[in-house]
Amino acid sequence: MTVETTAPTDGLTPDAAVRLYVDNAARAVGLEDDVAQVLGSSYREVTVQVPLRRDDGSLLVAQGYRVQHNGARGPYKGGLRYHPEADLDEVRALASLMTWKTALLDLPFGGAKGGLQVDPRHLSERELQTLTRKFALSLSHVLGVYRDIPAPDVNTNAQVMAWFMDAYSGRHGYSPAAVTGKPIDLGGAPGREAATGRGLVYVLEAAARRWGWDLAGRRVVVQGFGNVGTWAARDLEALGARVVAVSDIGGGVFNDNGLDVSRLIETVAAGGSVVDSDTPHTKLSNDEVLTLDCDILVPAALGGCITGANAADIRASLVVEGANHPVSPAADEILADRGVRVIPDILANGGGVTGSYFEWTQNIQQFQWKEDRFNTELRDRLDRAFNDVAEYSESHECTYRLASYSIALERVARAVRLRGYV
Question: Which residues share a beta bridge with 252?
């Protein structure tokens, strides 16, 4: 598990930054004021206190959150992140992003997010399991198969979701569909673990086909080498792209001839940093990695890494947002003015929630797909979403971000009106 820090960028908190993107789209589509009022805030925000008696006898009191932004299109859906800076503002922003992401991908979900303010690197396995079970029980009254379905996010994984599901099931009866991103043996879907990073590559392949690009030989930089970054790097390398730099909390590594992604993954899986790998490389700082000359930059760590302060130094032709809100609104304008294409997070990293949708439906049906079918369905969904965005962008002469938010906003607004909320 890695813990990196995120902070307000360009004077905006994460929630304010996402609201600015939404407001821009609302003006673009002429959203009515009454609908905008409904969509402008969260439906429910739950704050809980989660005390933990640690192995050394001391007491840790963690603050936990679950924000349910909008459920007009279906039950709430969103991940759980464990991070010292997962405060209410950050969780609000992420819940809102999930509303727009599920709408853009045309999934029958609303948007939610959960956060626990804790650094999991400093917890034993027993402490992490106990904290997770207490967190699950403290939120169980607002969760459920057709109410709100959590999934993994930053610093949570299949094991954490297994504990979370077991605690929830102890109170409500065996409920595998109440949580996604679980181990295969507990109802997880083959393909779900790779879905976010692999989905990013599917979106990139769709873009390459539309733009007449050949991904083979393209120089790729991946900032953040967790679940999303590792799968994206692995699949891009398999397509013939040259992964020239990656980074994690320990720093960055660079090799213009291409890094050995498999060896980097082995090092990280063993608990090391990419800088500890024996693959030939030059060490760089995280800031230097972001500004390397490359064809494709994949920011796949935490939000706020590309700001008004460094956007002019970005030398990629294309930025594909693997993380949530990694580009600030000020940086987004600078990149657009410079002709740098950006595929936004609500499209680029949508493979995770799409994969969760597949897992959820399989759990409800008590029928498991083969991984080939999972990946075929995933590619089909993401291809359609990308082409929807590209066609909107071309017809309205706007950025992919504005096109993505406009499509999502119109879909959620239709559901709000049809359900009689306004």
Answer: 247, 284
Q: Which of 114, 120, 125, 126 is nearest to 153 (CA)?
A: 114
Burial class from Cβ neighbours inside 10 Å (0-12, 13-18, 19+) for residue 192 reads buried
Tokens of 192: 């779900």
Domain 195-348 annotated CATH 3.40.50.720: yes
Per the document, the length of the chain is 422
Q: What are 289's two structure tokens?
A: 């990695």
Answer whether 41-174 and 195-348 agree in fold.
yes
Q: What is the DSSP string of 300-346?
A: -SSS--B-TTTGGG-EEEEEE--SSS-B-HHHHHHHHHTT-EEE-HH
Measured between alpha carbons, how far apart are the two ends of the chain, in Å?
A: 44
Paired sense of beta strands 110-116 and 76-82, if any = parallel
The structural domains of the chain, with segments of one domain joined by +, span 41-174, 195-348
Q: Which residues are catalytic?
A: 113
pTM, to two decimals: 0.94
Q: Of 218, 210, 212, nearest to 239 (Cα)?
A: 218
- For 88-132, what is each residue's pLDDT tens digit? 999 999 999 999 999 999 999 999 999 999 999 999 999 999 999
b/e sequence 141-177, b meaning 16+ C-beta within 10 Å? eebbbeebbbbbbbbbbbebbbbbbbbbbeeeeebbb
Q: What dotted CATH number matches 41-174?
A: 3.40.50.10860
